Task: structure prediction
Amino acid sequence: DAGVIQSPRHEVTEMGQEVTLRCKPISGHDYLFWYRQTMMRGLELLIYFNNNVPIDDSGMPEDRFSAKMPNASFSTLKIQPSEPRDSAVYFCASSTWTGAVGQPQHFGDGTRLSIL
Amino acid sequence: LAKTTQPISMDSYEGQEVNITCSHNNIATNDYITWYQQFPSQGPRFIIQGYKTKVTNEVASLFIPADRKSSTLSLPRVSLSDTAVYYCPLFSGNTGKLIFGQGTTLQVKP
Result:
């Protein structure tokens, strides 16, 4: 079974440009999470979806960030306009529930984003 | 959902048992204790999860005291390939969210 697939693996762009990060969760998983990792702030949860519906976006830093999940097999995280402080590794993770117990989150290998 | 506190770094030698502690004083009733491992340029990978007492799987053991305010991940006979960052995020049984702390960098030496 394929794991969580993220693209691109690396993205370098100039300040002000629009950036779109993509994620394909594991088939059958109904939870999808977007995280950001930096040296200063560690791993931060940005937003998560359940059954394609955004549940909690309180971690989204500001209006420049938006996330969508048009179907169960695809999600995007968009930054517009991008700024140098957005440089980080962005991870997508997916999971599901079995009865009353949540199952472990499976992470992709991340997108390393550099904003010049 | 509370953040957790861990030592910043630890050193060990191949073949030794390593115990990494995690403090979670504000753990809620519906929170589970989980441990993840992260290698450079990869996403975190699940190791083990528990609610109370002791849990063991093929790679690690997790010890949780009765008050659940701390936990200890035990890695038996570590090898060089166990060099990684280890996180102990709390998993909310209500929301499914994980909140990560700063992690422990484990360096295994030959």
Remarks:
- The interface with chain B takes residues 4, 31, 33, 42-45, 48, 50, 55-56, 91, 93, 95, 97, 100-102, 104-110, 112 of chain A (CB under 8 Å).
- The longest strand of chain A covers residues 42-50.
